[in-house]
């Protein structure tokens, strides 16, 4: 991610994107910030509650895989260095989220979605296509993505088992980060996406959530 310090060639960006894909889908994510749940005791959840919490955290882990791919895809074709730096900074914070969700899934005795490579590939393609439209549209996708993620995190905070304080702590910090990313993109000159695009994004998100909850 520190490749923003120099001018990148097309090959540099391709290799950087490929490395990120492998790290996100196949390798363990490493958070730069402490896990928000680190100081909280884990609760003894009933089997059904534990499976439900794991399903929700698997959705959130997959969402972070998608966000990582979206931002890296956008950054790969971003024309303005400042926009690229903004996208890569957001991607780094999404890596923190990815690591925290993976940790919680492990604690719950579960695993990430089997379809994460597919989700990553699709999100990267969407991000690259958005980026080719120009940096204003690039940032517009950031705003819409983060607003939709912020909304589903709010729903998950309501749906989590009452005793699952560790998952709740992680999602609360993630929700605050997503809101900040959206606000920063707006301030940087994001354009409002045409009406069909947010609806299409929401529809794709529903499919992903339905599959990732179970698989």
Descriptive overview:
The chain is mainly α and 215 residues long. The protein has one domain (61-214): Ferritin (Up-down Bundle). It has helices at residues 10-25, 47-77, 81-107, 116-132, 135-159, 165-187, 196-214. Helix 4 runs antiparallel to helix 5. The longest helix is centred in the first third of the chain and has 31 residues, at 47-77. The relative contact order is 0.17. Residues 1-5 have low confidence and may be disordered.
Number of helices: 7
Beta strand count: 0
What's the mean pLDDT score? 85
Global structural class? mainly alpha
Dominant shape: globular
For this structure, what is the CATH homologous superfamily? Ferritin, core subunit, four-helix bundle
- Provide the CATH top-level class: Mainly Alpha
**Rg (C-alpha, Å):** 17 Å
Oligomeric form: single chain
**Portion of residues within helices:** over 70%
Question: In a nutshell, what does this entry contain?
Answer:
The protein is mainly alpha-helical and 215 residues long.
Main traits of this protein?
7 helices; globular; 215 residues; 73% helix; disordered N terminus; mainly alpha; Ferritin
Per-chain topology:
Layout: H1 10-25, H2 47-77, H3 81-107, H4 116-132, H5 135-159, H6 165-187, H7 196-214
Helix pairs in contact: 1-2, 2-3, 2-4, 2-5, 2-7, 3-6, 4-5, 5-6
């Amino acid at each position: 991610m520190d490749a923003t310090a120099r001018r990148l060639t097309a090959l540099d960006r391709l290799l950087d994107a490929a490395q990120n894909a492998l790290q996100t889908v196949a390798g363990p994510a490493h958070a730069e910030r402490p896990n928000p749940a680190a100081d909280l005791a884990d609760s003894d959840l009933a089997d059904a509650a534990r499976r439900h919490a794991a399903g929700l955290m698997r959705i959130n882990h997959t969402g972070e895989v998608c966000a990582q791919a979206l931002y890296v895809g956008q950054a790969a074709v971003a024309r303005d260095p400042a926009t690229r730096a903004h996208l890569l900074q957001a991607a780094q914070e999404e890596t923190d989220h990815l690591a925290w969700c993976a940790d919680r899934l492990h604690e719950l005795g579960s695993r990430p979605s089997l379809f994460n490579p597919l989700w990553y590939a699709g999100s990267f393609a969407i991000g690259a296509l958005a980026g080719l439209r120009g940096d204003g549209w690039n940032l517009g996708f950031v705003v819409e993505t983060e607003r939709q993620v912020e909304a589903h995190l709010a729903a998950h905070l309501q749906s989590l088992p009452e005793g699952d304080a560790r998952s709740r702590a992680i999602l609360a910090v993630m929700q605050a980060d997503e809101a900040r990313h959206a606000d920063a993109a707006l301030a940087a000159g994001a354009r409002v996406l045409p009406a069909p695009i947010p609806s299409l994004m929401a529809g794709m998100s529903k499919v992903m959530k339905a599959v990732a909850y179970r698989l």
